[in-house]
Every structure is written in C-alpha cells, then in structure tokens.
Amino acid sequence: MRRVSLHERAVERLRRLIIFGELAQGTELIEAELCALLGLSRTPLREALKLLAADGLVELRQNRSARVAVMNSEEIVNLFEALSGIERHGAELAAARMSAAEIAQLATMQEEMERHFADNDIDPYFKLNQALHQAIMSGARNPLLSETHARLIARAEWARYSALGSRRRWDESVQEHRGILAALEARDAEAAGRLLAKHVMNTGREVVQALATDARSRANTAAA
C-alpha cells in the first residue's frame, strides 16, 4: 500500500478508538504500542498523529509521547456554541435549498436511526446521526460553511458520542431530530435553524454535566 494510504488508515482507526472511548482522554500514545496495534511503521503513525492533532483529538508534546487530548468544560461549551451557530445557519439554508429527494432521504435516515434507538444499538445510530448532520450541512449548498463545520465536528465527535451514554439524552435527541426533520419538510427555515441549534447545545450541556458529575465522584472517592 502507498504510505499515504497507510497513514490515512491509521487516522481512521485511531479516530474511532478515541471517539468510542477505547483510548480515553489523557491516554499516553506510545509509538511502539500503536505501531504493533496498527501494523505499521513509525513514519506513517507520526503523520497520522499530526493530522489528529490538527483536528484537536491528539496533543503533541515536545520530547514526550503524544496523548489523547483532554477537553475541559469551558472548551466544550465554546466548541458547541460555535457548532450551534454554524449548524443553525446551515439548517436555515438547507430548508430552502435541499431538493425534495434529499429531504426524503433525511426521513429515511431518521426512520433507520429510530430502529437503532429501539434496539439500543448505539454505534450504528451514532454513525447515521453523523451522516444526517452532514447531509443537512451539505444541503446548505455552501462549501465554505461545510468546510468550517467539518473541521469543528472532528473535535466534537467524542463529546457527541459520550452524550448518548445517557438514555434520557438519547431519547431527547431522537425527539429533537423529529422536530428538525418536520421543519425541513415544511421548508420552515427559522424553525429548522432554531431547533437544530438547540439540539446541538443540549448535547454540549449534557457532556458538561457528565464531566461535572464524574469530577464530583472522583473527589468523593479520593476523600473517602
């Protein structure tokens, strides 16, 4: 395989491990261990780590091993505020610019997402949810907006996935998606934008609350 093919494959594999929590935030990334895990040499691995660092998923440290980036509550709030604004504008444009066939495809995706929800099958639900958000942004017909969104969403994927660990939030998310779809079907740009922005911010708040709960739990354990 070509080297670029190797490092791209490594990027995708490591991205999945980080997003799905198999490589927890703060985990030190030992090159020898990763090379053995991924079956490649140090050069393509280092190229992959640089790309993941550009996406905010990995922290490169001088004279030390790289590690999985750690996001604090303030960073998560800032990130989701930015995403909320971008996706709001994207939904407003998509309500006017998406074709009927594209909106029908969103409805099909929603139905499939709800089947995964009913089966408590989180990983395929999450992948489809990602694709649905991307489809809405694509429907805005604004390449610069989509490009900006893609850069930010790479950093938010871990947070979005972890939020679905709460069944209550997962149920809310499904309901919110129904409202967003209905607004797009009605070509109601204002409602589509408002509902999608609220949906994104609700996810960010869920992650911040989970981090606070985890911090309290660790503090109580240490004090015991």
Quick recap:
By secondary structure, the protein is mostly helical. It has helices at 3-19, 31-38, 42-54, 73-97, 100-118, 122-139, 143-163, 167-185, 189-223; strands spanning 28-29, 58-59, 66-68. α8 (167-185) packs antiparallel against α9 (189-223).
Main CATH class of the largest domain: Mainly Alpha
The percent range for strand residues is: under 5%
What is the helical fraction, as a range of percent? over 70%
Low-confidence stretches: none
CATH homologous superfamily assignment of the largest domain? GntR ligand-binding domain-like
The total tally of domains equals 2
Number of helices: 9
- Note the gap between the termini: 54 Å
Largest sheet: 3 strands, antiparallel
Shape label? globular
List SSEs in N-to-C order.
Answer: HEHHEEHHHHHH
- What is the total tally of β strands? 3
User: In angstroms, what is the radius of gyration?
Assistant: 19 Å
Structural class: mainly alpha
Q: What is the topology, as strand order, of the major beta sheet?
A: 1-3-2
CATH topology of the largest domain: Four Helix Bundle (Hemerythrin (Met), subunit A)
Q: What is the subunit organization of this protein?
A: single chain
**Which CATH architecture of the largest domain would you pick?**
Up-down Bundle
Mean pLDDT: 90
